[in-house]
Write a structure and sequence with these properties.
By secondary structure, this protein is mainly beta. It has 5 domains: about 90 residues, Sandwich (Immunoglobulin-like); about 190 residues, Carboxypeptidase-like, regulatory domain (Immunoglobulin-like); about 90 residues, Immunoglobulin-like (Sandwich); about 80 residues, Sandwich (Immunoglobulin-like); about 70 residues, Immunoglobulin-like (Sandwich). It contains 4 helices and 54 strands. Strand 33 and strand 34 form a beta hairpin.
């Protein structure tokens, strides 16, 4: 049986952990959690810990959905040097020969008497380990002879308490490794409702130490630390005697999305711990679960709704459809357009539904049509000379279209040989059929055809791979190749939701088979992330031989953020285009309030909007021009309106009501007339002619009497 997959053609990657997040994600990467901020997690050298960054209590510690994978540890670098020879110590397991070994010199930071413990060291894979007591003889606490490879070590004191485990690499010479002695401190945090800022009681925070693996624990009396605490009525949580180490945290509260993140402590809070013996992690922002219902249509074609299930693509648990074809989901934080994964009965079909048409009105279900009304038979023809060059192991036929509601869809059929393939379940007025296979190790489009769809019709088409695709070369305005540039193309008017994305090689070249004489929207980003084309319109014309895509750029462009005339660092902006609302690139202002310069390709339709959730920008969206783009940005607070009246922001001379009508401010706080608005002086003139004025400070609440 040929496997059929229904999926939306999405060119975005998954969002990484916020605690380890690259703030300049690749083209198409979704926006991070609106209730979190970035936090430094790359631990400083132990000798420089007094200079570590401390996050203030008013800031968020940055959490991510529990569905995200835990990031890996950072690699460490060590200086080389000569020290006196020591014995290899006690061998826990593995070979005892010293030939081919190098010295790992361990020093312990934070203890006055190193002899009060031992260094325990294990090779990756746990097939060799050492335990060496620490002599009290100066700077070098212990030396172990180790084989080349990746190792992890920790210091354990006489009471069996472990310092933080650290990974290091041995290549072809001796290494020096600094280990931390065990330590404890008081850890605290505050939990709030991310929708309105109210403090939350009863939030459970579970902390489980993860830097100590099983070999450490089986070799001594030490145990992995685990702590649990619940917030009080003021939303405050505190744990005394919290041990140094790397921890996995899980925060949960009924009715809210569980949050999971990994953090080395004290890490960036070392300065606080050294000064006061405590670390305030800041604000833990919890996201309320949003009910969302999905209604199947046409499931009778499948013998009923049994076997269908659905889930948010990044939020875990499936919801199963009842006999009436209805399923209920509870969504945590999500960005729009929303996309959901659906499983069909049996193992042959899956779906990712992408709500390009927008969210349904409150209380109404989102309808997914799974009927088999329109079926397309594709006759795939591949000549022998092409078959010998391509890898069909992961080859697919992709049929992309857009529903009447505006939602993007892609149906994909595994196609590992020439032949006729049946693709049921199409909708809309047109579709793009594409054959994709591996060419020289890279996924490449090898043939494409645009067809017209008719409701209730069984259609057929021939898709012939006449020759290998054309070689396309991307160059800058001077003709120099843009090595590693990523190209994304889609239909300019979006009638079928077809899109194509590929990365150029070191010579700036790539394979491309594209629909001829069709207006396309192009996005390009260079490997250094400094040259960008944003939704530029082009027409692809067939020609013989390699084709050159030349990117002439405007003068360097910067985005500058100011608030009350002052430069504002740390502000994140999203770059997107006129043809697609999808985020293309995230830019962040530096200390001078400006982003790093980018070079925007001529005829691009680049636009900018705020990505920082607690800030507000005049007009919400701005066109990107060459040179400096200065944007007025405000921190926000909450304004409560107790009567229907025009309330004006004095500095901007605009009313809150006009902002609401234009969608520039959001309502928060449920049934109350409470809005998240820019800070500053507000004025209201009542019907009796009296005037009221009040100042809204950032993060505060102002109620109009």
């Amino acid at each position: 049986m040929k496997r059929l997959f229904l999926a939306v053609f999405i060119l975005c990657g998954s969002v990484g952990f916020l605690l380890h997040q690259d703030k300049s994600p690749p083209m198409g990467v979704g926006r991070s959690d609106a209730n979190t901020i970035e936090m430094v997690t790359c631990e400083p050298s132990l000798a420089d810990r007094t200079h570590a960054l401390a996050v203030m209590p008013s800031q968020s510690i940055g959490l991510e959905s529990s569905a995200a994978a835990r990031p890996g540890r950072e690699d460490l670098s060590f200086a080389q040097g000569e020290v006196a020879s020591k014995s290899p110590g006690t061998l826990i397991g593995g070979p005892d020969a010293t030939s081919g070994r190098f010295k790992a010199h361990f020093s312990i930071l934070g203890v006055s008497a190193p002899s009060a413990g031992a260094v325990v060291c294990w090779a990756q894979g746990w097939d060799e380990g050492h335990s060496v007591p620490c002599p009290d003889d100066g700077n070098v606490a212990a030396v172990i002879l180790v084989t080349p490879g990746r190792w992890v070590a920790a210091f354990v004191d006489a009471a069996g308490a472990y310092g933080e485990a650290r990974w290091f690499d041995v290549v072809s010479s001796d290494v020096h490794v600094q280990l931390a002695a065990p330590g404890t401190f008081q850890m605290s945090f505050t939990a709030i409702d991310g929708s309105d800022g109210e403090r939350l009681s009863g939030v459970s925070l579970d902390a489980r130490r993860v830097d100590l693996s099983e070999p450490f624990l089986s070799d001594s009396a030490g145990e992995a630390s685990r702590y649990e605490v619940k917030t009080d009525e003021a939303g405050f949580g505190q744990i005394d005697g919290f041990q140094f180490g790397e921890y996995n945290f899980l925060a949960s509260l009924p009715g809210f999305e569980s949050q999971e993140f990994t953090l080395s402590l004290p890490g960036p809070f070392f300065g606080q711990v050294e000064a006061s013996g405590r670390a305030d992690l800041g604000t833990l922002s919890m996201t309320r679960l949003t009910p969302f219902s999905v209604q199947l249509k046409g499931h009778e074609d499948w013998g009923g709704a049994a076997g269908f299930s659905i889930a948010h693509t990044h939020q875990g648990n499936r919801a199963y459809f009842g006999p009436d074809g209805l399923a209920q989901l509870e969504l945590g934080w999500f960005s729009e357009p929303l996309y959901l994964k659906m499983w069909f009965p049996g193992d042959d079909q899956e779906a990712i539904a992408y709500l390009d048409g927008g969210m349904p009105p409150d209380g109404e279900p989102w309808i997914i049509d799974v009927a088999k009304d329109v079926t397309l038979d594709v006759d795939l023809r591949i000549p022998e000379e092409v078959l010998n060059r391509i890898d069909l192991a992961e080859a697919t036929l992709r049929v992309t279209f857009r529903t009447a509601r505006g939602d993007s869809t892609m149906l994909a059929v595994a196609a590992n040989e020439p032949g006729v393939y049946s693709v049921p379940g199409l909708a809309g007025t047109g579709a793009m059929v594409q054959f994709v296979a591996s060419l020289d190790g890279e996924e490449s489009g090898l043939a494409i055809e645009r067809i017209r769809l008719e409701e209730g019709k069984h259609l057929s088409c021939v898709l012939a791979v006449d020759a290998l695709p054309t070689r396309l070369k991307i160059v800058d305005g001077n003709g120099s190749p843009l090595a590693g540039a990523h190209l994304e193309l889609r239909e300019r008017h979006g009638s079928t939701s077809w899109a194509f994305g590929v990365t150029a090689d070191d010579a700036g070249e790539l394979f491309a088979v594209l629909p001829p004489n069709l207006e396309l929207s192009m996005r390009v980003i260079s490997k250094d992330r400094q040259t960008v084309a944003v939704d530029r319109t082009i027409t692809w014309e067939p020609s013989e031989g390699p084709q050159i895509l030349r990117l002439d750029v405007m003068p360097p462009t910067r985005i500058r953020a100011t608030t009350e005339g002052r430069p504002l660092p740390g502000v994140e902006f999203e770059l997107f285009g006129a043809h697609s609302d999808q985020t293309f690139l995230v830019l962040r202002t530096e200390e001078d309030g400006q982003t790093s310069p980018i070079r925007v390709v001529n005829e691009s339709t680049a636009r900018i909007r705020l990505a920082s959730p607690d800030l507000w920008m005049v007009d919400g969206v701005a066109e990107v021009r060459s040179g400096e783009n200065s944007l007025r940005v405000y921190e926000t607070g909450r304004l409560i309106l107790s009567e229907p009246a025009d309330v004006y922001h004095v500095a901007e001379n605009q009313s809150v009501q006009s902002w609401v009508a234009r969608g520039l401010v959001e309502k928060v706080g449920g049934a109350t007339a409470t809005y998240r608005v820019p800070s500053g002086l507000y004025r209201m003139v009542r019907s009796d002619g009296s005037t009221w004025e009040g100042t809204l400070h950032p993060g505060q609440v102002l109620q109009i009497p």
